[in-house]
Amino acid sequence: MADVAVIDSGGANLASLLHALRRLGAHAEVTSDFARMQSASHVLLPGVGAAFDAMARLRSAGLAERIPTLRQPLLGICLGMQLLFETSAEAADSQQATRCLGVLPGHVSRLSADADHPVPHMGWNRLTLLQTDPLFAGLGADDYLYFVHSYVAPASDAVLAVADYGRPIPAVVRGGNFRGVQFHPERSAKAGARLLANFLAL
Amino acid sequence: MRDGQVVKGVRFRDHRVVGDILELAARYRDEGADELVFYDITASPEGRSVDRAWIERVASVLDIPFCVAGGIRSEADAEAVLNAGAEKISINTPALADPPLIERLARRFGSQCVVVGIDSQTLPDGRFAVYQFTGDPDRSRDSGRDTLAWVDEVQARGAGEIVLNCMASDGVRRGYDLPQLKAVRARCSVPLVASGGAGAPEHFLKLFEQKAADAALAASVFHSGQIAIPDLKRYLREHHVEVRL
After folding, report:
1. pLDDT confidence of B5, banded at 50, 70, 90?
2. What is the sign, positive or negative, of the torsion defined by CA atoms of A133, A124, A184, A1?
3. Nearest-CB residue to A19 (from B59, B214, B215)
């Protein structure tokens, strides 16, 4: 059975993720204790709220330098995926950038709205796979995942899949044992559960 | 929602019980609803907060996003609802009474989970007016705010989504109020959800074909079984509206 450490990055709303993990039969525990993360089989980095708040909490818990040293499969979800990059435009001061975990290269920028694409981007989208990954096992071309975000990861070789929102949105990223998904698998019905199960099987 | 039961009103009056929450939530989940909204209709008028026990039970069975509306007047109220597992909170009357609440919630929890609900009516002169206390027919009244100006203001304050409930259409199933929705959507850079008036699959199709909103909300036609969600989504896809099946 997967033993999942869910990193406490502050913010609310871990309930839906914990319910999803339990429905998959995993043991899940919310923690800010690094030793607990090291002993887990899988680590999840969720995130609801703003990048600067989440990074401030991870720094004050002494986790910002240590999370990048984890060796087991880690999955960042939504903001948690964005925190894997070097910097984010989501900063307390609009002139500055928030320094993030830096396990993936590049800068997270703000999505710009147009007439047909309001921001936040909220809703269900399909994925276009650019690279293969065990996360995608059993997912089909007509599977939809639930997105809700206002910031977007950079295009790079780390992008495994994109969603179309008037422009390609990096939806799944990977660097070694660190993966991230822009959508919320815990709120993406059966397709999301499948992806989470694939992660827990890594 | 009223006292743990799902109720549905017709033009905001005469609410009647339609069923148990969990059963209905699971039914809509299985039928392919993309998101559920739970309105605690008695919360605002009576000055009490939503009872949160049901939110946790709903969160445990739902694997799609859901939003809770009613009685959220503070960051603490919002935090309790979000911690119980809701994806979003929707505020209506409290936002009218305390507009900076929108900013405080957006700053604390992120714009993406702060929905502002607006109950709006077309006035005889063609302007749109925001109504408040709409959960209680005896207290429901014109707030004195112009709907379009309020739409601008809530976005400037950090709302991440707007649900526009067109009151004259609500529960009467004659179609969404497309002129009003289009006027509001022209002012929106955040997603706009249309509410009030859905009575037939064609109403949903017109809404999307005319790009009058980003999403459609309906209650009566689903609760009554008049429209089955899987049939509606197949119909929309056949007419080239992209939907999740």
Report:
1. low
2. negative
3. B59
**Is the CB of residue A91 less than 8 Å from the CB of residue A97?**
yes
Distances (CA, A) of B13 to A65, A88, A163, B7, B47: 57, 48, 42, 11, 19
List pLDDT tens digits, range A33-54.
Answer: 999 999 999 999 997 678 888 8
- The separation between CA A163 and the C-alpha centre of its own chain, rounded to angstroms, equals 14
Is there a contact between A189 and B63 if contact means CB atoms under 8 Å apart? Answer: yes
Between the two ends of chain A, the Cα-to-Cα distance in Å is 12
Closest-approach residue (CA) in chain A for B76: A12
What does the domain layout of chain B look like in residue ranges? 5-238
* Mutate: best of B35, B112, B229, partner A, most A CBs <10 A: B112
CATH 3.20.20.70 fits B5-238, yes or no: yes
Q: What is the pLDDT of residue B4?
A: 53
pLDDT at B126 over 80: yes
Q: Which domain holds residue A34?
A: 3-200
> What mean pLDDT is reported for chain A?
94
